[in-house]
Amino acid sequence: MSRKTNEAIAKITEESTALGDALSQQIEEHLTEICITDAVADKILAQPDLIKKIGEKLTKEAKNKAQKTSGGSFYYMSPLEAYQLIEEFCGITADDKAAQKKTVQFEQILIEDLI
After folding, report:
1. Which of 21, 54, 86, 101 has its CA 20 to 30 A from that of 40?
2. Domains in the chain, number
3. Are 40 and 12 spatial neighbours (Cβ–Cβ below 8 Å)?
4. Using alpha carbons only, how large is the chain's radius of gyration in Å?
């Protein structure tokens, strides 16, 4: 990992910890998982209060899609759907993700070669 990716991860970890809720933690975990290139780190670092804003976006999306029933309103958002919304909000593209996959595959090959 580069200095920039470490800085981005530290930023979102600090934001998540300050908010202290489960949704913020899940957002932070996903962004940390995909923050392995400088391109993704740049997008994370460019947005202040990123975790809070994504949480608000996810909550708004869920409220807009909520179904009213006799037991109240509900909406289930799958993890995949939430991850897609997070990445769209940050502007993380398919090219960014493809670069990440290549990096991960390259690292796996190196590890296997050492064994």
Report:
1. 21
2. 1
3. no
4. 16
Identify the pLDDT of residue 66: 79
Question: Domain limits at 30?
Answer: 3-114
Q: What is the mean pLDDT of residues 11-28?
A: 96
Tens digit of each residue's pLDDT (9 = 90 or more) over 38-57? 999 999 999 999 999 999 99
Rounded Cα gap, residues 51 and 19, in angstroms: 8
109: Cβ contacts below 8 Å, ≥ 6 apart: none
Helix, strand and coil content of the chain, in percent to the nearest 5, comes to 75, 5, 20
Check residue 21 and report its DSSP letter.
S
AA letter at 10: A
The secondary structure of residue 27, as a DSSP letter, is H
Report residue 55 as tokens.
Answer: 């949480």
CA distance 110 to 103: 11
Q: How far apart are the first and last CA of the chain?
A: 22
Type of residue numbered 62: A
Phi, psi of 86, rounded to the nearest 5 degrees: -60, -50
